[in-house]
Amino acid sequence: MITALKKFFGIVSTKDLNDFKSQGAIILDVRTPSEFKQGNITGSMNIPVDQLMSSLKKLNQQKPIITCCASGMRSGRAADLLRAKGFQVLNGGSWGSLQYKLK
User: Fold this and answer.
1) CA-based torsion, 13, 78, 24, 70: positive or negative
2) What is the pTM of this model?
3) pLDDT (tens digit, 9 = 90+) per residue, 84-93?
4) What is the distance between the alpha carbons of residues 56 and 71, in angstroms, rounded to a whole number?
5) 74 Cβ partners below 8 Å, 6+ apart?
6) Which residues pair with 28 in a beta bridge?
């Protein structure tokens, strides 16, 4: 029951995030370019959520993806869109808290 609630609300454990990272996960920041320039996770890729569907070919479907944004709302939407296209995805939430969760 708790696991289902966590998935529904996009709550991901640090262990899950680091498991994805150890598999070579792409950190996908779905904020606008101007937001991304103000601060981001080193090595992350920036594709704004409103451009995601037209940019799928930029992503390697063989690699897991951790999405992030400012608060977790856009990254949750991006994660849902990517999952529907067959990607293995975790919503990392806000980029600020995600950078501290990743080792």
Assistant:
1) negative
2) 0.89
3) 999 999 999 9
4) 23
5) 30, 31, 49
6) 45, 67
